[in-house]
Each structure stands twice: as structure tokens, then as C-alpha cells.
Amino acid sequence: MIAFINPIHVLRTLVPLVAMMLTASITRGDEPAAAAQATTPPLAPPAPLDGRDGRDLTLENFRPQSMLAVPVHHLPRAKFPVVDVHVHPRIRLHHSPEQLDDFVRTMDAHNIALCVSLDGGLGTALDEHMAYVWTKYRDRFVIFANIDWRGDGRADDPASWDCQRPDFARRMVAALEAAKAKGVSGLKVFKDLGLVYKNPDGTYIRIDDERWSPIWAACGRLGLPVIIHSGDPTAFFLPIDEKNERWEELHRHPEWSFYGPDFPKRDDLLAAYLKIVERHPQTTFIGAHVSNNAEDLAAVSSWLDKYPNLVVEIASRISELGRQPYTARKFFLKYADRILFGTDGPRAAGRLFPYWRFMETDDEYFAYAENPFPPQGLWNIYGIYLPDEVLKKVYHENAARIIPGVREKLAARK
Ligand SMILES: [Zn+2]
Q: What SS3 state is found at 256?
């Protein structure tokens, strides 16, 4: 919830109350102090700033209902089978078998044929995760591994982290080879690399640190695509003030802000990411969340033009794409072979419906999430009515071409 209380509003409410109390004690005459103590009622809570009866309105109470009368298409499911390449069954479902059953039912209802779990881990963590998703649903999931940069080291002591040992990359390459042999389809790298983790000298661990080069090279050699979350939305790197387009979200989650001299610069993070894409042309890189730059599709287009080994996926970014529908539609048509579908799920049905509506209809000005308050910026989105050939590519054909195991599992379902 939002705890935003403007002190001016509080003063406006309190000043008349205090004035009333003073007046009451003075007009009562005798023994003003004792009388005030005995008879003054406790301060009434300030009236909610709900915009009613002339009161001011806080952002947290603002719930505008659109009065537009335009066509509405509630699509219950995707038009063609979908491969969701960005799903977190470990992080979001906590390895609960019941929740996995529920989610597979949601997949069926929405025509999601296959999901890519980005939560595999390596070693015993990977074995546990494989048992979790594959015991019942081997035909519905492929799995990406993750690297544990810290290992058994202490969180507050970077010198003790596994990645600081000289043989780290060599051991990770061996673990990835073993994972590949067990049927893993790729590698996911979380945003902590570059944005959170530090070296013992206090500098941030760079994603383009040469020490990790053998890992990216091995993924190319093994045919494992690498999906990297590098950076975050532009607004998260700006001051949390009245100009920030995601003020409400950052106010709820100040820990998502990376603004200030203590954090890496967003442009540096994106540049470091592109550097490893450039250095490893044999490795396929999947830019998570439209390469974390959905606000600037011209820049993402230039990257796709420059790096044939780069593709992007759209998880949690229809909020960005759908508020620039002309630009986004051109982007999807031009790069139809380079865009994968993703949601950052498992998500409840309410979060999935807007994806189909965005991709398939020309509906105007609708909510991109089921929340009563838009969670990623106070705006609505527009559909981009992609043609069937493009939908098929983005929904499953590109994933079948790029991610090992997807084609076989899709074919087995037919
Ligand atoms: Zn994610």
C-alpha cells in the first residue's frame, strides 16, 4: 500500500481542529487548562484524502474510470500455441506441487503450450528443480540453468564468494556441460550481476568482466542461449520525485530505485551487456524485457541490426510497448523473427488476458494488468493487432528455432 501523506494536507486538516480546541477552552472561561484536559475529545483522524466533498485527493486514492465508448475484445486465450520463454516456477511457486498443477491448468486455458523455467540453478539445485517441473510435466517445460556467483560465501563478504576464486569460470563451464547433458536448454543471468554484486574492493562486479568470458563462450559452444536481465526501467535510475513517471511504484518499492552515485549508471550496464554480445558472436543472447530498454525501441532496433546473435523477449513490458502502439507495431513487424514471447510468470489469468488483447486486437486504452492501480506506471495501453504470420513467429516459431528442446516438445503435443 502507499503511505503517501502530504504534510501540507495534514496541516490543513489539523489547523482548524487545533483552532476549534483553543476556542472551546477560551469560551469555557474558568479553569481553562483543567477544563480542556477533562473535556477535549481525542483528535479525530484526518478525513481521507479521497477527493470527495471538496477534499484533496492523494494518488493512492485516484481510481479514474475511462468513459471512452470503444470496442472491447476480451480474449480468453491466445490465437496460436504459445511458448512463454520467461517463467519463474521456483521463485514464484516455491516448488509447491499444487501451485504447479494450478499453473498448468492456467497454461491449458490460455493456449500456453510450453514454458521456459529460468530458475534451474546448477548442481543439486538443478536436480531438485528438474524433479519439480519434470516429474509430471516434462512435456510442458524446458529449463534454463543459473549461476550461483556467491556460492557458500557470506552475503556481506564478497571476498568469500565463489566467483572470486580463480577457477570459478572453469568449474561453471564444467557444470554447464553436465547440465546440458541432463537436458537443460539455456542459461539465465539475473540482474544482480552488474547491478548489485560487488567485488572485495567495493566496485561492482561487471557483466563484461573478462573473467566470465569462458562461460559465455561455452554457452555458444554448447548451443545454450543466454538470457540476461541487465539494467532496469529508465525511471528506476531517476530521482523519486514529482517528475518520475513511475513515482507510485517506486514509492511503494523504494528498494527498486537505483538512482544516485552509489549505483551503476544505466547506460553503462546496457553497454557492458552489448559488449559481451559483441565479443561472443557464436552465442545467442536473449535480451530479457525487450533488452530492458522498451522505452527506446529505436535503440533496441539498432542493437538488433548490429548483432545477429541478439534476440529479445517481451516479459512484463506490454505496459511499455502498449503505450507506444504505432512504434511497437512497426517494431514487431520489422523484427518478427527476433522477438520471443514472455510474461515473467507464473501469473494468474488476470495478468495474462491483457497480453492476448495487446498482441491480437486494436482495442484502445485498456489496463495492462489486473491490479486496481496500474503497477508499472499510471497509464493504459493499446493493442497492436499483429497479423497471423507475426503472431505465430512471436508466440512459438522463434522459440522453436532458438531454444533447444522447444521444437520437439511442441511437435509431441500435436
Ligand atoms: Zn524474470
A: helix
Question: Within a domain: residue 218?
Answer: yes
CA 79 to chain centre: 24
pLDDT value for 25: 38
Cα-to-centroid distance, 175 and ligand 1 (Å) = 22
Domain annotation covers residue 384 = yes
For residue 257, is it within any domain? yes
Distance 19 CA to ligand 1 centre (A): 54
Looking at the domain assignment, is residue 283 inside a domain? yes
Domain count, the chain: 1
| CATH label of the domain that carries residue 215 | 3.20.20
What domain range includes position 144? Answer: 90-413
Would you put residue 274 in left (φ > 0), alpha (ψ -120 to 50) or beta?
Answer: alpha
Q: Which residues, given as ranges, of the chain have pLDDT below 50?
A: 1-36
How much distance in Å is there from the Cα of 14 to the middle of ligand 1? 45
pTM above 0.85, yes or no: yes
Rounded to the nearest angstrom, the distance between the alpha carbon of 86 and the centre of ligand 1 is 6
Separation of CA 349 and ligand 1 centre (Å): 18
**Residue 317 and residue 287 in contact, taking contact as beta carbons nearer than 8 Å:** no
Q: Which residue's C-alpha cell is 532496433? A: 301
- Please report the pLDDT score of residue 43 as a whole number: 85
Q: What spacing in Å lies between the alpha carbon of 187 and ligand 1's midpoint? A: 13
